[in-house]
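User: Fold this one for me? It's Glycine--tRNA ligase.
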Amino acid sequence: MSNPTQKPTLENTQLKDIVAHAKEYGFVFPSSEIYDGLAAVYDYGPNGVELKNNLKRLWWEAMTQLNPNVVGIDAAIFMHPLTWHASGHVAGFNDPLIDNLDSKKRYRADVLVEEKAAQYENNGEAERAQALLQHLGRLLTDNDLGGVKQLIIDEKITCPVSGTGNWTDVRQFNLMFSTQGSAVESDAAQIYLRPETAQGIFVNFLNVQKSARMKVPFGIAQIGKAFRNEIVARQFIFRMREFEQMEMQFFVRPGTEMEWYQQWKETRRRWHEALGLPAAKLRFHDHEKLAHYANAAVDIEFEFPFGFKEIEGIHSRTDFDLTQHQELSKKKQQYFDADVNPETGKPYGNYVPYVVETSVGADRLFLATLCNAYTEETLTEGEGEAQQTKQRTYLKLHPAVAPIKAAIFPLVRKDGLPEKAQQIFDELRHDFRIIMEERDAIGKRYTRQDLIGTPFCIAVDHQTLEDETVTVRHRDSREQTRMPIAELRQYIGQAVSFRRIFEQL
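Assistant: Here's what I get for Glycine--tRNA ligase.
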């Protein structure tokens, strides 16, 4: 489905180029492609899985290693069905759906309006865009679906396929996938594939607090799959039906939640900038319509080729989740705070903690990183009449998250150079993800590594056999540095260490 508010040439072309690049160079493949694929489901290839795992590991260590009061869990995908009644997902996890009667295409009604607002903003009408979003927020808060349809009509929003405004009524669509919880269908209770990872943290709140001896304020982090039956899943891996979340729920004393909300809001934005996402391509977007559990919410948005979209949400969830689980399970979800309240001179005592959530879409972060890294530049080579220009494409990935840290190239496939390259490979492979390539001219090998974002290429030549030095080529600048083999481990290790990112936080 095309986006009616996109600038139709540059942005669409750029995304198509990135999608094609991701497939050709082993980052992302359509799932089950030999059977013509499955809508909005994707597989990560050899380079993609390395990049995604590096991003996940970077997030995990930033949370659990840099913060002594954050620990992790790995909760099950299947949970007791009452979990989703307590959380509100069974009754209220819906998106407003609308169909165009001429094209037979289905859309999220709120997204149609948001895209119209984005069009106003792109045209310099920021106030008009803001007013439209505020109006939409009020309608959704009041569950006024008739009003949402009228808003679509008033704004003259048409189907991008048929070009008509022949719309059905807006109706709610529950996004959870359900299945049977028993091998015997007649005995099976309906259970759900989790639509978020947060509830696995909430139902384990006391288990974690007691076993890890945690004291409020503290956080629980988790990385895991979630599933949503999206009405319209599109824009490559931005919106999928099976996706991965990186969430941290931070439990705080009631009354301190807004202080922690502001702190985590700034902390998380700094993390994205340290990863290499430019500040100019990041922005905060406060929610006009708050979820039923929240008293404050903001998105960190990244400017994709298709516009600013959410990559992370920070929410002040109040005590909604723990209180709901306490009421439905009949088991107390309280924490005893022995610290002295300066106002009363007595311990704070028992209370249900408030929660501040940070939630990153791992797939969206992957896409933002890929889009930001995808670089096309024009090179000028030679002088005078021999001067010529050529296009160069490479992935300008931070070395710490690059799928491959270094590639080792023997200059020729003889004279003992492959054997020497193999020796260097064997010395470094326990420390880094590296490869060795012998085929093709060395220029082609450099180009191939540029296209997958490898930060360093190490050339082994005849001089190497004489003095134990190699030439290290740098991806971004294409500059070459001669150095001893003995210094490679430290040189590469310093560049690809997560410490380079953590130092900026």
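One thing worth pointing out: The domain at 397-502 is CATH 3.40.50.800 (Rossmann fold).
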